[in-house]
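anyone seen this seq b4? input:
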Amino acid sequence: MSLDAIIIGAGHNGLVTACYLARAGMKVVVVEKNDWIGGAAVSRSLHPGFTYSNCSYVSSLFRPEIMRDLDLPRHGLQILPYEGGAVLTRDGGYLAMFRDHDANRREFARRNPRDAEAYDRYARDVLRHCRFIRPLLMRTPPDPSRFRPRDLAELAWLGRKVMAMSEEQIAAMVRFWTMSIADYLDEYFTDPVIKAYLAVSAIIGTALGPMSPGSAYVLLHHYMGDVDGNVGAWGFARGGMGSITTALHRSLQAAGGTVRAGRGVERILVANGRAVGVRLEGGEEVRARRVISNMDVKRTLLTHVEAAELPGDLRRQVARFKTRGSSGKVNIALDGPPRFTALPEGAPMLKGDLHFTDSIERMERAYDDWKSGHFSRDPFQDMMIPTMIDPTMAPPGKHFMSCFVQYAPPKIAGRDWTDADRDAFGKTVIDQIEAHAPGFRNLILHAEVRTPRELEAEVGLTDGNIFQGELTFDQLLFNRPLPGYAQYRSPIRDLWLCGSSTHPGGGVMGAPGRNAAAEILREIRAPATMGDAYAVL
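predicted toks r here
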């Protein structure tokens, strides 16, 4: 069979690209190194009777347009919105958060009436920034260096969006994109616990602290999703995050595409400057008219392409793409529900995300440990118990807990992680939970501890970076991953990129995969209009 496309990696973006291409009539095969599909969006059985979302753990960013296009609900995908969450404070109290804006406002008023008033203004301003950014997610960024008609048209479209704003709004947008979340929240709120809760989305998965310039944009990135039309809402995929990639796999099969799991790619084959296929581990070669990599740009071009195929200056540019990991994960099977001393019995906040970091200063100190080359001694945790909403993930009466942890560096004091480092990291996380839920440790049936070492080795995330590249301003839009290569093409003909190191970035979003497919199909259908695009074989 002559293949039209080989996609490397059965993560969610690779599967999204494959689905769109297969639906367009192309012969598509996805190759995956692991014995399971899903990449970082996976459900795995690591303890009898339990289903773990052992990498990504919540859904919101996944684009509803993609869900509709690929009929994912018909293929079994269901997103269950969660109720809210809470910060558990060191003085034994808590700040609750809810899906409802007015409920949040009342909770803020319990701590600080002026902050409750400011919350309306804050929500309005952040939503304005979201409305500007959201339409960009499903569009290929223009290349301002080439001045092709299509790029000029896209730049003009962006210009019209900006000119529709007032001077005050433009200034506010530029400030927001470049300032720290700590400074931004200081303009609205005074209560440290309220600011700590709202700062969370600005540090998740990011090698920045809340006081780092540029961290405010990361918050916006996390606010751009929705569940059931509720902008900024989050939820659990019923059956774990692997339900998303399982539904994508079923959609691909329905369109005639296939996945070959358990065979990693050793080398991308290039002939006369053009990608012509892949060599799998074990030596088998598979040929295709184009190769599409769901790996990050570093892994694709520096590890799986012969050095001679890229000029040295370009290799240096790729090497400088920032992929500093900052996150770890602890997944826990529990014999019963934990009892947090600060929360009332049956509190709805247990059905959302729980945090122990009750000030931005405490969050910044956790980041200081990362900067010194050590995991945080007092880490920030985004802790959830999805089985409070989705009982399918554990036996009756048991629970699965997901603990996403900041900060964990790619190296410990400049050296590789050891098993002893990993175990100490896991103990630090569990000790912190025990302090707020006495007896928690006795409920643990099994725990999986994942540092950047495991994330890179098992999932292929370079340096353990969950976004396949940092979401800093210099690595966004037409700079992602590199200036001149932000339109899903690589420097090698017919080698494409569809992973999260491309626009618009990381998270279980699917937009990079969909946009890459759109560019591939646009080139095939109209090569003469593509400027310097490559002719179809």
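The first strand starts at residue 5 and ends at 8. The chain has a mean pLDDT of 92. kinda curious what u guys think
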